[in-house]
Design goal:
The chain is an alpha+beta fold. It contains 5 helices and 10 strands; from the N terminus they run αβαβββαβαβββαββ. Strands 5-2-3-6-9 form a 5-stranded mixed beta sheet. A 3-stranded antiparallel beta sheet has the order 1-8-7, sandwiched between helices. Strands 4-10 form a two-stranded antiparallel sheet. A hairpin with a 2-residue loop joins strand 2 and strand 3. The longest helix is centred in the N-terminal third of the chain and has 9 residues. The radius of gyration is 15 Å and the shape is globular. The N terminus is likely disordered.
């Protein structure tokens, strides 16, 4: 794979370091995080001026006893039944927050699908393919990493499946 230019932030995170090591093209975006924001993902979309359909949140779920990462647009909700099916399981529930933090090495609101302490099975919502680039957490609140969905899937070993449920659907 040919290396492409990337823009790196002075304060690298495990997520940005993983993208840089892989040689994929990416851009980081920082913004002033408000701890009182009701939704970190929607806050990121608004602060960066990016459509919420292009900003993806990283959620950790328990699928039949296996922690699994779900990456879905901030404008949607995770369909746990669809995630279980996509991950080859029967049941899914949101993971214990402490277990998610301990396993990924990130804090809630800053969990990235990239550069996790232990890479978990990952499912990326199929809607990501509709965009040339998507944004996900770069490993801390107030920092996003933007890259092509195919690069995100490749770096995380993600399966792509329709796991998001649009609000109001």
């Amino acid at each position: 794979m040919a290396k492409k230019k990337q823009k790196q932030q002075a304060s690298a995170t495990p997520a940005t370091a993983a993208a840089a090591r892989a040689g994929v093209q990416f851009t980081t975006h920082s913004y002033a995080h408000d701890p009182a924001a009701p939704s970190y993902g929607e806050e990121a979309a608004q602060a960066l001026g990016v459509a919420p359909e292009r900003v993806f949140k990283t959620l950790v779920a328990d699928v039949d006893g296996t922690l699994t990462v779900a990456v879905v647009p901030v404008s949607a909700s995770l369909d746990l039944k669809a995630l279980a099916s996509a991950a080859g399981g029967k049941r899914a529930a949101m993971a214990d927050p402490a277990a998610a933090e301990r396993t990924t090495g990130y804090v809630l609101g800053g969990i990235s699908p990239l550069g996790q302490r232990r890479q978990l099975p990952t499912v990326l919502d199929a809607s990501a393919a509709a965009h040339p680039t998507v944004c996900v957490s770069a490993g801390r609140r107030g920092l996003e990493i933007e890259m092509a969905p195919a690069d995100l899937a490749g770096l995380t070993g993600a399966t792509t499946a329709p796991i998001a449920r649009t609000h109001g659907a």
